[in-house]
Design goal:
Elements (H helix, E strand, L loop, with lengths): L1 E3 L3 E3 L3 H9 L13 E6 L2 E5 L6 E9 L3 E7 L5 E10 L2 E10 L3 H23 L2
Antiparallel strand pairs: 1-8, 2-8, 3-4, 4-5, 5-6, 6-7, 7-8
Protein name: SRPBCC family protein
């Protein structure tokens, strides 16, 4: 299953946005206030949103100033969340890509909550 967020613009430069996203504790700032967030290590965190199971993510890969890749920890839901960053005027733009391999029933159940999650992250990036 592949899902994409809308492309959002921010006043941060690509370097600033990249540095922000590679410090996983900053993801708390992108989530709603009522979301559960727990830092599990320098590059790992757990989050929970209403209507979704708690998910653990870790920083898997990054390309300076252009891409940050997070991956799920655990075998229940195996997926990656990629943020592609590019220059846009004085700031930058970003798009989130979700890629997971799920059976049809699971994909149907989680598509709505994952889309909401992507939109929440995109909105958070846009407001930086």
């Amino acid at each position: 299953m592949n899902l994409e967020s809308r492309v959002v613009k921010t006043q941060k430069s690509p370097e600033e946005l990249y540095n922000f996203l590679t410090q996983v504790e900053n993801f708390k700032k992108l989530l709603p206030e009522d979301a559960k967030f727990e830092l599990l290590g320098e590059d790992k965190f757990l989050f929970g949103l209403k209507g979704m199971p708690e998910i653990k993510l870790t920083l898997k890969d990054s390309t300076p100033h252009s891409q940050v890749v997070l991956g799920s920890l655990g075998d229940k839901l195996s997926f990656t969340l990629t943020c592609n960053i590019s220059q846009e005027g004085d700031g930058s733009q970003a798009q989130l890509l979700f890629n997971g391999d799920f059976n049809a029933m699971m994909a149907m159940m989680i598509k709505g909550p994952i889309n909401k999650f992507l939109e929440q992250l995109a909105k958070g990036i846009e407001q930086l």
